[in-house]
Amino acid sequence: AEPYGRAATRFTRQHLLGREVWLERDVSDTDRYGRALRYVWLIPPPKEPTVTDLRRHLFNAVLLLEGYGQVVTYPPDVRFAQWFLQFQREARQAGRGLWSQGRDGP
């Protein structure tokens, strides 16, 4: 299990189970391991999303902001990479999730 993996799984289930989501592809369909690469939206994906849209409605960003994940990029799929890095820095500076002192998770 990844550090904070169980907590991230619980958080994801609490927020997504039974909820309609929209999956958005960037450039590639899958990574080199055959895993689907998708952005998970809580609303229909806006054509030109703002940073507020990302913070509130892009679940990938929510996970980072709450400290339940780390940025991993798979070029050329880097549409939101600069924002994801910023969100990760914010979570780290605030000591959220895996950036907290007790990294075992709640």
Uncertain parts: none
Outline, from the CA principal axes? globular
Rounded average pLDDT: 93
Going by helix content, strand content and strand pairing, the class is mainly alpha
Helical residue percent band: 25-40%
What order do the helices and strands follow?
HEEHHH
Q: Separation of termini?
A: 15 Å
Physical arrangement of strands within the biggest beta sheet: 1-2
The number of E-state strands comes to: 2
Determine Rg (CA atoms, Å).
Answer: 14 Å
Protein architecture, described:
The chain has 106 residues and is mainly alpha-helical. It is 38% helix and 6% strand. The protein is built from four helices and two strands; from the N terminus they run αββααα. It has helices spanning 5-16, 51-57, 59-65, 81-94; strands at 22-24, 39-41. The chain has a two-stranded antiparallel sheet. Helix 2 crosses helix 3 (59-65) and helix 3 (59-65) runs parallel beside helix 4. It is globular and about 35 Å long. It starts with a helix and ends in a 12-residue tail after the last helix.
SSE layout:
Elements: H1 5-16, E1 22-24, E2 39-41, H2 51-57, H3 59-65, H4 81-94
Antiparallel strand pairs: 1-2
Helix pairs in contact: 2-3, 3-4
Keywords:
106 residues, mainly alpha, two-stranded antiparallel sheet, 4 helices
TL;DR of this structure?
The chain has 106 residues and is mainly α. It has 4 helices and 2 strands; from the N terminus they run αββααα.
